[in-house]
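Supplementary Methods, section 5.1.

A reviewer requested that the exact input to the structure prediction be made available. We therefore reproduce it here, unchanged from the version used in the analyses.
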Amino acid sequence: MGWFFFSSKSESLDTKNYVQSSIPTLFFHGYGSSANAEKHMTRAAQKAGVTKTIIRATVKQDGQVLLEGEIPSGAVNPIVEVNYQDNRNSNYQQDAQYAKAVVTKLQETYGFTEMNMVGHSMGNMSILFYMLEYGSDEHLPKLMKQVNIANHVNGLEGLDLPSHPDINPETGQPQEMSASYQKLLGLKEIFPQNQVKVLNIYGDIGGETDGSVLNLSSRSLKYLLGDHAKSYEEQKITGKLAQHSQLHENPEVDELLIHFLWKK
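The structure derived from this sequence is encoded token-by-token as follows.
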């Protein structure tokens, strides 16, 4: 396995523009993907002077977590690229267990009490079902900021999209709910009140879809989290790089992430 701790003397920290925090940010990839899909975003943060510290957490199929690299004492805004070996598991409860395994391993190793999470595509379901299953566990680190990119919370086109996915424009409540969405309704009861700042990024290549996920599905997130979140913000991305699997390679997304997660 490779060594995934990055530190460069030529890339100094930008202490003027970005918070100098010890809170780690965990990135979760999508279905059939890997931590390589997170590299464009994490390197953008490194190049901007947000952090010098990027490590990788590989989750084996049995749930064991291998940390590659090290977060030094006093590291600023460390980033963890999460890599699922079992990357085609659409059992979201299992994905939530994988996410918890990473969080627990980091907590045991570094003693973190707070964290941020970023998900692309199915990585969002890892985060949402993690919060559904474990978000009220006071022994685990508190989630402070959550970024959802290309989320399909109310279904994917051609897979589990409801026949009538229209939403209430004010509340985000969908007219019809997928089976997974119905399970996630529990978040309305247990999602931490006034704790988590949420950024919801979705793409529109034309026709209000990113090519795989309708904007209506992505925007249904608001109904689950909006009333409980400390803040909730939606950002629509357009153009060629707004396509579903291109969003994590999009410089505009990089800028939104960096500003939301770390800007002073």
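Residues 1-10 have pLDDT under 50 and may be disordered. These observations are discussed further in the main text.
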